[in-house]
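Shape matters. As here.
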Amino acid sequence: MKISGIELIEIKMRLVHFFETSFGRTYERRIILARVEDETGAEGWGECTAGETPSYCEEWTESCWAVLTEILSPVILNREIESAAEVWDLMKKIRGNRMAKATLETAVWDLEAKQLNVPLWKHLGGVNQEIDCGVSIGIQDSVEQLFEKIQTELDAGYKRIKIKIAPHWDYEVIEKVRKRFGDILLMGDANSAYTLDDVDLLKSLDEFDLMMLEQPLPHDDIVDHARLQQQIKTPICLDEPIHSADDARKAIELKSGKIINLKNGRVGGHSESKRIEAICRENNIPVWCGGMLESGIGRAHNIAMSTLPGFTLPGDVSASKRYWVEDIIEPPVEVTEQGTIIAPEKAGIGFDVRRERIDELTVRKEEIA
């Protein structure tokens, strides 16, 4: 294929409810979308999952916009590409910037699937058309408010509840949730809020039989996580330090954790996600798909990736209405009464992109040709 045009669009979308982690509160998302086009006029869409500030990782909206417009887009524009899987290799000479890379890389995967007239999930090698879904619930203003949100999600059929935790919102909160909701599938996500000095507190969480404790220690660590895993029964799930299949291999060898949260943006797109999924599956390490408050386009890519065989735990791929009053895809992502999402049979990401809705939300755009 030959990419004859690239359009970059930044939109602003206000969340239905603020989302709070140990990094702070998010009320509104600045989202960069990429539309790639071939010589026939066929198009593919990708989404940048970077945050508004460099808190989750070094990348953020402004850095990604600059890298996409000035550096990455020229790498693939007007170039003959054998397959979408080649895009990652073309970008290797640029270090890091994986969320920016994933924006274009996933768009090319969508385009290629449409050219082949196959659903993206099948094109990626997916085998499970129906995927189990969980939800991620941020830190709330009160435990009672947290209870209300958990009950709403359980009533909606979600199979796993993840709650964000931090030093001011951990043991007592989890204790109250367990007493209120019994043996629901429950996990805690710390977003790097603790250190090994907190080992006694983290050990105390073992009594709550959590599915996993996600990223308790610093974002770039796999050594101290191995030390911590030796001291606690709760499985540690690694998130931020896993950027590549090689990172996954090293973490597995060190026994830094027993589960990996796999995010397309964090690792650079579908090609590297597939490699990480494969190495985890070969080593019996379950993976699941984490969320980054994506719009429908990013969510559609997450659905496709979650159909790969190694995704054996419910991910954070939930319904559009949990985040947006009105999404930018049609139909919006919906969850069945059984707490699952069924990957669509339509070619590419399987959803129609609502260009008129995108235009309403657009704050800047740039066409690169």
Remarks:
- Residues 3-117+354-368 form a domain with the Enolase-like; domain 1 fold (CATH 3.30.390.10).
- The first strand starts at residue 3 and ends at 21.
